[in-house]
Amino acid sequence: MSHSNTAFHQLLKPLSRHEFEAEAKKHHVGQKLRTASRWDQFVGMAMSQISGRQSLRDIESNLEAQRHKLYHLGAKPIARTTLARLNESQPSALYEKIFSRLLRRCQSIKGQHQFRFKNPLYSLDASAIDLSLSLFPWAAHRDDTANVKLSVGLNNGTHVPEFVALSDGQENDMVQGRKFDFPKGSIVAFDKGYVDYQWFKSLTDKGVFFVTRLRAKAVYRVEERREVDRSKGVLSDQIIQLSSAHAIKRGAPKLRRVGYRDPLTGRFYEFLTNNFRLSAATIAAIYKDRWQVELFFKAIKQNLKIKAFVGTSRNAVLTQIWIAMITYLLLAFARHSAKAGWTVQRIMRVIQLNLFERRSLKSILIPDPPHKKSEPQMRLVL
Fold first, then answer.
1. How far is CA 201 from CA 51, 126, 153, 230, 251, in A?
2. Are 13 and 77 within one domain?
3. pTM value?
4. 272 with 317, same domain?
5. Segment 150-164, tens digit of pLDDT
6. I need a labelling partner for 95 at 20 to 30 A (CA). Which of 231, 321, 354, 374 fits?
7. What is d(CA 112, CA 158) in angstroms, rounded to the nearest whole number?
């Protein structure tokens, strides 16, 4: 193993340093940086994400301790005051752009969801990242709360967040949801927070399928009833037309309503979709698989630093979140490259223990099996 190839060095390899520096020049404000670069800032913040450093002082101390190993990354230790200043003043848009570039490189990651159909499957949702109102007054949501909102379109096959947006906490989920350009032929599952009849029409016109839940007060007309297999929990399968004045005005398309009772919980659900080909039981299972995005939010909040922040300005918070998302992509890329079959969370914990070890990522993630000691053979002496 080359002297330079620490696990951290290998983890960052999917990032093009040339592209990073080009984008850094575009996303720079103020005077020329002298004591530290944007790359130094990124390396320090990414290291803190993986190693779980809790403060600027902690980040500074850890970087200084690894000074001789940072050299081979093209980085150097950064003082906490300098790091704080960069987080506060230099545009977070740089890291949003780097995330987008890295995401394109992640297109090589292959994965298959649990269903037989070949359509790409996405789960769409948004999650609030809570902040202290006294420390982050710019993020005030109500009189007593503050947060920012992370919107994600997760690929259920690769578990890669292919669509990501950050917004103010008070913004409606639909604002960012509408902006995600899901590919033609894909299937998107989302909850009732994204019910918008005009958007339903737009998705249908683009050839994008969706699965969601029917609102309790929705007004509709049944145009066709299909046979159902009650042994699978399906109670009804209907072709409907939303008939309220609101739906008609917004051009709601003809849709499919599936009534389903969960055999485990006994709860009844009404699903709404523009897919008329898949079985009713599959439609119900697709919505259930939307839970993948909930697990994603749980994983990043538990394993990455997006709950405790090392800066209080809007720019510092967004910088930290975007670098956390970049770190997640890098870990997903390592998982794919090593073909370890582990979750991103498990890989992160293993890499955390070996971050500056000079070992290949593959040997860290797939260690050689222990050699069995051969049993001594008995010799018959005549």
1. 46, 22, 19, 30, 6
2. yes
3. 0.89
4. no
5. 999 999 998 999 999
6. 354
7. 7
